[in-house]
């Protein structure tokens, strides 16, 4: 009989070996990652895991090389809590590196990580799968934001296709709001996504293996859920579960389908909005969600009775393949 992924398979921390908690890095989300990483490190160590901090991918490579010749310094697996790309750990580069080095890691693999870091391509996959997502326009460098806004119709959001944590996100309610977005676009060398603004409630659904956690309805005190509301403010309200009955089942099923369609496995978070006319609309996937005091996956897990150290343990367990009885059992010391 299979073990539910909300129940620990192991009780002995030695089964994990020596664990690098990878945080920080050089992406625009460095500070959030450091905050998340410190929390994860403390939680794992509190459960007896031989965990240590590593700041950034080059330092991790050095640690793996050092461990190859010194068993006492061996890196047996990586808890990846880097955020973003270009030095972050969510764009597939880190995953490909660790695959090549045969070091297990938390979160989705190369495909899911690379795809979901690109919001535009993720939405294209969802559309091909018949999953709902707001209308959008892809903006290459130098694109005319005013013309794009007219083609979609205001209000819209403008955001980098390959960033996270609300970095570089602009809420455009009228023509006057386009100036700030245009100024940002002029100095940004990547693609931008312009997306129709969903008029309705905002939700997020954490994913843990094959389980969609209870949804969370997000109610910021301000006009929208920006960087300040996510990581600084203490007046943002989080209602969990965000829905009831059939609607709660529907949003969890949709989030899990979106996660899988994007090639993801392991753990993550799917952001969803509920349009007043169109219903649920998929916004994006986060493959290394925040683990700060304001973060959402820990809030949803707590609703199921999973405290923060137990959540970190369950995420780390996913780096150990589940073996069937025919394969000789799970091995190690398990619950």
TrEMBL record:
Catalyzed reaction equations:
2 D-alanine + ATP = D-alanyl-D-alanine + ADP + phosphate + H(+)
Pfam families linked: Dala_Dala_lig_C
Q: Indicate the enzyme's highest-level EC class.
A: ligase
Primary location class: cytoplasm
**Keyword ATP-binding attributed:** yes
Entry-linked InterPro entries = ATP-grasp, ATP_grasp_subdomain_1, D-Ala_lig_Van_CS, D_ala_D_ala, Dala_Dala_lig_C, PreATP-grasp_dom_sf
> Which EC numbers does the record give?
6.3.2.4
One GO MF annotation is:
ligase activity
Going by the entry's taxonomy, the superkingdom of the source organism is recorded as Bacteria
What keywords would UniProt list here? ATP-binding, Cell shape, Cell wall biogenesis/degradation, Cytoplasm, Ligase, Nucleotide-binding, Peptidoglycan synthesis
Entry keyword Protein biosynthesis: no
| Cofactor (UniProt) | Mn(2+); Mg(2+)
Q: In which pathway does it act?
A: Cell wall biogenesis; peptidoglycan biosynthesis
SUPFAM superfamilies of this UniProt entry? Glutathione synthetase ATP-binding domain-like, PreATP-grasp domain
- What is the annotated localization of this protein? Cytoplasm
Q: Where is the ATP-grasp domain?
A: 123-317
Its annotated function is as follows: Cell wall formation.
Q: Which family does it belong to?
A: Belongs to the D-alanine--D-alanine ligase family.
Record's protein name: D-alanine--D-alanine ligase
Q: Which organism is it from?
A: Marilutibacter chinensis
